[in-house]
Amino acid sequence: MLSINNLHASVAGKEILRGLNLEVKPGEVHAIMGPNGSGKSTLANVIAGRDGYEVTAGEVIFNGKPLLELAPEERAGEGIFLAFQYPVEIPGVNNVYMLKAALNGIRKYRGESELDAVKFLNLVKQKTRLVELKESLLNRPVNEGFSGGEKKRNEIFQMAVLEPKLAVLDETDSGLDIDALRIVANGVNQLRDGERSFVVVTHYQRLLDYIVPDVVHVLAGGRIVKSGPKELALELEQRGYDWVVGQAA
Amino acid sequence: MTAALNQALDSLAGEFERVAATLPAADQRSVANHRTAAVDRLRARGLPVTRDEAWKYTDLKSLAGNRFRFTGPSATALTRQQLPALTAHPIVLVNGWLDPVLTDLDALPTGVSLSGLDQHLTALMQSRAPVDDAFQWLNDAFLGAGLHVNIDAGIAIDQPLEIICLRTATDEPAMCHPRLRLDIGAGASVTVLERYVDLAGAQALTNVVTDIVIGQTATVTHCRIQAESPASYHIGRTYVDLARDATYQATHFDIGAGLSRTDINIEQHSEGSVVGLDGLMFVDGKRHCDCHLNIDHAAPRTRSTVRYKGVIDDEGRGVFNGRILVRQDAQQISAQLHNRNLLLSARAEIDTKPELEIYADDVQCAHGATVGQLDETALFYLRSRGVPLATARALLLHAFVGDIVDAIADSKLRQLALTELAGLLAALEPLPELT
């Protein structure tokens, strides 16, 4: 599904990713862990197509298509979703309105007809239950005045409505208390259907107690230096990253 | 004055000489003298140049290439059904003149009287202290077109009073100099919609003076929409005079004309009056839009709140100058003035200058101006969700102007404003609230 080969990317002239390889198959959950500054968020943003990240070498193939040539909204149309580490507050833009524009943008990209207002609102109501999102938040401006937990729930809620093929969660656990973490993870788990894939970027093993990965990768110095089964996360929690990074050097 | 402006002035004054004898009440000596005196002042002082502080950013030299013809009242082939009217019984000016066919004089609400300017010329000539303003003089020179509206004391009118200033196609570049005079009686309340609609799309000059005199405790809600074609020049003066405890709540949209210059002059000369002024300019292509605002707090316990926004695209240029004067005796007043601008292209330009001049000591005043671009992070967030770039920009623009539009209390007026802004905001279909 997702195939990243020898990816090099720079931010403001500084090379962050240095030959990253990653293979994600349908239905798989991959966790990306690693020390601060190793390039985890850069990877997430490059996949989603954010400006300011310059890819200097390598390729990202998604379901057979070269992803790097596509605009962010086209990537969304192909089925990519990025849950932001810091969801953006957009005063004056209604949450549901934004989501309707997004869903219909994606449907149009795929040559499907737009959803009418009634069908759309039914879909929205159904999905709010998934992450226990208060309906009162729906008609508020996007993320404005939301608590940290509400913002992250809103991300997962949007993901549930947009039903991506591949979701990249960029430190979705940061800033969450244990209850919110459980709700968010529960939402993600309900969206696991054997087809949808996830790349979960996280600092801590804790999230992986709830979202159990198929593969755990350690990203260090812009490369994946170690991959292993879910138990690797526990080992990293106990021993830190130094031993892996040392092994790879 | 430059050669180009001299030429423009000669053309305007020459047109006055040509038509002076045909203007209403031209045989009345006092009226004729008033007009001639205005032209003489205009000739003596000349058209404003960019060395004049108030015209620093607005250069009128392109006026020189045009020879604008002044047209008298004439019948139009338009029918009421063809009017782009919001209400059932609009008051219609055609090329500056009150049109007695398109305007249904019998349908005016009780307490409202309307007439052409003819019967009011003498009163209008003495209505205001002389100002140093070339376009006011030009308007005085051609005094005669326009209308006079009187609202009786204590009358409350639910429906908006719609005034459409319509320009129709003419063979040559045309100009009009209408005067709109509204007298609002004590305790009355009314919503006035003042629209500039251009069916011609040709070279033209509109030079309008709107006088709104608001009686004690009366409330005027005023929506002014200038949406003339990019080929036209629009010069507008709005004078608002507030008596004790009167309220002026206004929304000004400056979204049309190739060159537009509006001056809004508000006099709060009596205690307790309240002004809430919202404004929005939208300037694209190579258009130019200049808004000068003057609020004079001359009496205690007066309040004013101004929110004026600018959206400038392409090679458009916007100018905003907001001046608030607080005189020595105007204690316990509050004045807020904020100007926010969004530049959508690298070649767009805005020159903004809020000015506070305060001579009283017990006052609450704040002012500020900002210039920014669309938030790149927000744009990426929306696009990453699948919102196409054009829609994402429209959503953010909609958000930027949203509070100005949403503050319009009358839902029909609000919808009209959205329709007028549709090109700017792209088509956004409304979504019902979740229940």
Name the descriptors.
heterodimer; A: 249 residues; alpha/beta; Rossmann fold; six-stranded mixed β-sheet; four-stranded antiparallel β-sheet; 29% strand; B: 2 domains; ten-stranded mixed β-sheet; 20% helix
Architecture overview:
The complex is a heterodimer of chains A (249) and B (435). Chain A has one domain: Rossmann fold. The radius of gyration of chain A is 18 Å and the shape is globular. In chain A, helix 5 packs parallel to helix 6 (178-190). Helix content of chain A is 37%, strand content 29%. Chain A has helices spanning 40-48, 72-78, 95-109, 117-128, 148-162, 178-190, 206-210, 231-239, 242-248; strands at residues 2-11, 14-24, 29-33, 53-62, 65-66, 80-83, 90-94, 141-142, 166-170, 197-201, 215-220, 223-228. Chain B is globular and about 70 Å long. Chain B has helices at 3-19, 29-45, 121-125, 134-141, 376-384, 389-406, 411-420, 422-425, and strands at 69-70, 91-94, 97-98, 112-116, 146-151, 161-167, 174-176, 179-184, 189-198, 204-214, 219-226, 232-242, 247-254, 259-268, 274-283, 288-297, 303-312, 317-326, 333-343, 349-358, 363-372. In chain B, the strands form two sheets. In chain B, strands 1, 4, 5, 7, 8, 10, 12, 14, 16, 18 and 20 form an eleven-stranded mixed β-sheet that branches. Chain B has a ten-stranded mixed β-sheet with strand order 3-2-6-9-11-13-15-17-19-21, covered by helices on one side. At the A-B interface, helix 2, strand 7, helix 3, helix 4 and strand 8 of A face helix 5 and helix 6 of B.
